[in-house]
Amino acid sequence: MSAPKQMHLAAHFPGVNNTTVWADPRSGSQIDFSSFVHLARTAERGTFDFFFLAEGLRLREHNGLIHDLDVVGRPESLTVLNALAAVTDRLGLAATVNATFNEPYELARRLASLDHLSGGRAAWNVVTSSDAFTGENFRRGGFLDRADRYTRAAEFVSTARELWDSWTPDGISRPVTHSGEHFGIAGEFTVPRAPQGHPVVIQAGDSAEGREFAASAADVIFTRHGTLDAGRAFYADVKGRLAAYGRRPEDLKIMPGVSFVLGDTDAEAQQNADEIRRLQVSPQNAILALEQVWGRDLSSYDPDGPLPATDPDPESTLVQGRVRVGDPLAVAAKWRALSEAKGLSIRQTVIETTARQSFIGSPDTVAAGLAEFVAADAADGFILVPHLTPGGLDDFVDRVVPLLRERGVFRSEYTGTTLRSHLGLAEPVWKG
Amino acid sequence: MSASRPLHLAAEIGGPPHYYAGHYLALARLAEQGALDFVTLGDSFTRPGLDALAVLSRIAPDTDRIGLVPTVTTTHTEPFHVSSAVATLDWVSGGRAGWNAEVSTTGAEARLFGRRPAAPVTELWQEAGEVADVSARLWDSWEDDAEIRDVATGRFVDRDKLHPVDFEGRTFSVRGPAIVPRPPQGRPVTVIDGTSGPARETAARHADVVYARATTPERAAAIRDDVRRRAAAHGRDPDTLRVLVALTVDLGDAESAPEPGLSSGPQLAGGGSYYRGGPVDLAELITRWHRGGAVDGFHLTPIAPGRDLERIVNGTVALLQHRSLFRTFHPGGTLREHLGLARPASRYALARTGEEA
Ligand SMILES: Cc1cc2nc3c(=O)[nH]c(=O)nc-3n(C[C@H](O)[C@H](O)[C@H](O)COP(=O)(O)O)c2cc1C
After folding, report:
1. Quick one: which of A120, A96, A420 has its CA closest to A250?
2. Of B61, B108, B142, the CB nearest to A86
3. What predicted TM-score, i.e. pTM, was given to this entire model?
4. What average pLDDT does the segment A169-188 reach?
5. Secondary-structure breakdown of chain A: helix, strand, coil percentages, each rounded to the nearest 5
């Protein structure tokens, strides 16, 4: 029998999303550096591939007011990751950085600096999500259309690669001249070729354009497809797009963001998960989630009462700074059907429909579930999103990782020093 | 009165580029042993080497007390990102961050971005002032106690304590508030070289620490007086500014006959000052200028940091300490504490509660 497929694991620093249970007494600071150190060191103890930071460039608003019910406030990613490079040895360090509100020369230099300072552990999650609302914090404003954001991102990544390739492997710098639709750059890059050749590129986005961009340019894709069937369909779709770019399926790792809840038994884990959902979807948060779909002020509704009879406003700008998922009319219809079928209140409906707990159970059950996903080609690994800052990964590393190792589906020690080597990705060929 | 003012010392640790952290860490630790206020790392988009803020973030967890001041340019960068990165350096260093605001004047720098041509220096310093201004506002935009974690009402933050900055500059606008909560120092320390005319006004208005490149104590004192006068005209208390003489030092030939007179050294471009001689004579010079009340301290740029910083710390600084002119340890933890600067209150908190600034 051949050796089982190896999985990749990454740790998402929890914050700024309703995955976090900040009301839990064990919940610590989302901003003190010690929190980042704790989670990163735990991930490294678990021989994880990388540590992942999300990004948001404007505080979310709801109905013109700053959203105050979730964790808010976070540090600037690359700066934190450089500091984390000092307290970790092998762990990859991945920063989410928007391609719309940055310039390739500066960002390529910052990423290459992180790669040097960490000995080849840098990664960039290229996102394009933000809109004019976020643009109000930036020189360029928010004038890019959705489609243009991906063409800019693609040109951004290829321009960064021209800069990273501008030093020969033997340390000779040559001037770069780039003249494209979005960028015109002429001059010398000040940082020699990075230890990894190029920092690892991650893409997070789900549209056809997003998938195509990932297939052409990314090393890792971060998805939200957390069920086995959805995962397999996504996996097949994305891997199928690679050949058109002369790439092999193993050149792009597919890693869904998943949460997990552990207990000594499956029943206890389910109880814990229910409790977490109850805390995440407080009465206030339930109304808020409803307003996010309906795009209307529903503050007078009783969270323990029935769903509104009116339809959502598809043109609403009630919610700002958060990606709206799916067609609101369709989502509302689905919620209504569920609520009627099961006799659920607003809060109960929200609890059921927005569940993100992908893996719930005893350590054995969770290890088996993760392994099954990978064996079934629904994923190459996972970006784990814990509920608690910063201790939310402790139990996973202590109790689940050893079981994954026993199953032979996850490494027991690092075999390389760079993130590319953890991910089994070849160093990019130098294109002089 | 002036003789009793505490002496402040800082050193640049840049030089020929190195592409690993250990080199810079060793220098920063040396400066920390000498109880210096801060180390700086120069940068520009055309300077060979790593991003300075990245390097100082990388060494922050491996140092304890020393202030960390990277050069950050304001010309082709995004003010919102700049303020977030400097605030984050403050978070990861436990309140030891500053930034030396600089402008990118050359066509070579402009061509790396391709967004706009090189602009006149006066305009660039005006813009730098706006970037310093909006940064300070963003650092203030979260009041210190904005995070409440009130389980009873489900509110994580008190939104009345988060403030849009609504800044409209000539070349940019920022809505705010910051995404980074208020950093440990309230506002990280802003450093500007105020020697040149266009930068002087920006420094007087926005900087906590101002460099003065001068070849005589009289010239340094004149710059200091001018900066303080301008600061007062902007409604600032001049005693919240520290003016440091920026001196390039070459201690390479310590055995040679001392050349204490600055005029005997070559002049650097831009009217900079240059010292060549031994560590003891440098201590004499520092003592003389500081005792005369011309300056609050010195920012020393060693010609060869690996060699000269050791001579500065173990020679010059040791002698100043022996003469009780310089402290032997850091009594506080933050860069503001080293500099004797108060932690500012958030302007929005003051406005909201109706207190006087
Ligand atoms: C799993 C996942 C995580 C994401 N994380 C971020 C993030 O941290 N910051 C951000 O600005 N956008 C984030 N996004 C948004 C995407 O980058 C993308 O811009 C958005 O989904 C719109 O593109 P699409 O239509 O291709 O999905 C994320 C998307 C996904 C699927």
Report:
1. A420
2. B61
3. 0.95
4. 95
5. 40, 15, 45
